Amino acid sequence: MAKVYYENNADLSVLDGKKVGIIGFGSQGHAHALNLHESGVDVAVGLYPGSPSWDVVKESGLAVGTVDEVTISCDIIMVLVPDQIAFQVYKDHIEPHLEPGKTLMFAHGFNIHFDAINPPPDIDVSMIAPKGPGHLVRRVFQEGGGVPALVAIHQDATESALAVALAYGKGLGATKAGILETTFREETETDLFGEQAVLCGGIAEMAKTAFEVLVEAGYQPESAYFETFHEIKLIVDLMYEGGLAAMLSSVSDTAEYGAYTRGSRIVTPETKAEMKKILAEVQQGEFAREWLLENQVGQPHFKALRRITAEHPIEIVGAEVRSMMAWLND
Ligand code: NDP
Ligand code: MG
Questions:
Q1: Bridge partners of 44?
Q2: Which of 30, 169, 229, 303 shows a CA-CA span of 20 to 30 A to 210?
Q3: DSSP string, 5-60
Q4: For the purposes of burial, counting CB atoms within 10 Å of the CB of 137, is it exposed (0-12), middle (13-18) or buried (19 or more)?
Q5: What is the rounded CA–CA span in Å between residue 197 and residue 189?
Q6: What secondary structure letter does DSSP report for 159?
Q7: Residue 66: how many CB atoms within 10 A of its CB?
Q8: Burial status of residue 203 (CB atoms within 10 A of its CB: 0-12, 13-18, 19 or more)
Q9: pLDDT tens digit sequence for 65-121
Q10: Neighbours of ion ligand 2 (CB under 5 A)
Q11: Which ligand is nearest to the CA of 70?
């Protein structure tokens, strides 16, 4: 069984007298900085000069400075900038100030696992990766709970890397839900595969294609949108709360029978073979190389794909349909 850490396994006092620098104040950064601050941890936020988030940090009462300043003044540096630029920020503004004994942290293993960032051997390198977007990490904490997280240790120069990472996770609220032990490799590869095959790639493609099939058959786009897109949330909520059993027992027997007999015709042995190829591209670093290269040349392919997706009829119709649902607009 995988090892899971809870409140009693983590000691916040490990962070007494230490300063934590949060680099970036986006989705994860704002949640980490504010949760840790409210847990009594000494936090400073590092940004680039001219960031629109600079004033937002100040207004929330936290210290803010450049990445260089914050790295110099802090003992623990959590890197929460976009993964595709992290190695540059690291090289220019973090690496020069990494004195022995400092701790470098990440919320995703991408740059360490694929060797884009190679920290000196005399510092600790660890990961606390919340299993949820930043706004959820923040909201659940404010409600008195925590979002589960993963912990991994890449380098343990001080022999306290795990204790520090778990204390950080406790300040974030994650030990309330549980922190699962993993490795940089496992976190990175499963995360990339999951978002590509299912979460962000697979589901979106399935919904778009099913929408096209209905519209091409002459059904109203609004009806197609409801059936193939809107209702995903209702179904996923049931799966999330009680597994497939809860979902299948809530839908009609007709839907359940249709699911058993037709679902496996959508995800076929060919689909599984393709999933294995996608996993191999992740494992061999092929995807990482492709994505970092795409960024080096200014993201032309990425930007084109974004535009094409934004122009898909499911997005146009969806925006209209959602404007009818007042409760979605706040
Ligand atoms: P965001 O894009 O939401 O935020 C990035 C932040 O970095 C912004 O505040 C941005 O500034 C700042 N930034 C950009 N460039 C620089 C720079 N050169 N120097 C300093 N700061 C800079 O990122 P996320 O929070 O989504 O991702 C951060 C990390 O968390 C990644 O490793 C990601 O994989 C991981 N993660 C993300 C999850 C998520 O749900 N989003 C879930 C789990 C892990 P500005 O405010 O000016 O734009
Ligand atoms: Mg992910």
A1: 21, 63
A2: 303
A3: E-GGG--GGGGTT-EEEEE--SHHHHHHHHHHHHTT-EEEEEE-TT-THHHHHHHT
A4: buried
A5: 12
A6: S
A7: 15
A8: middle
A9: 999 999 999 999 999 999 999 999 999 999 999 999 999 999 999 999 999 999 999
A10: 191
A11: 1
Rounded to the nearest whole angstrom, what is the distance from the C-alpha of residue 226 to the centroid of ligand 1?
33
Q: Select from 32, 34, 47 the residue to mutate for testing ligand 1; criterion: most ligand atoms less than 8 Å from CB.
A: 47
Check if the beta carbon of residue 90 is closer than 8 Å to that of residue 79.
yes
Structure tokens at 104: 């470098």
Nearest of 226, 225, 246 to residue 237 by alpha carbon: 246
Q: Tokens for 161?
A: 């890397």
**E strand segments, the chain:** 4-5, 19-23, 42-47, 63-66, 76-79, 103-106, 124-130, 149-155, 179-181
| Active site (annotated) includes residue 113 | no
Residue nearest to atom 37 of ligand 1 (CA): 28
**Residue where the block lists tokens 């778009």:** 208
Cα 263 to ligand 1 centre (Å):
37
- Total Cβ atoms within 10 A of residue 255: 13
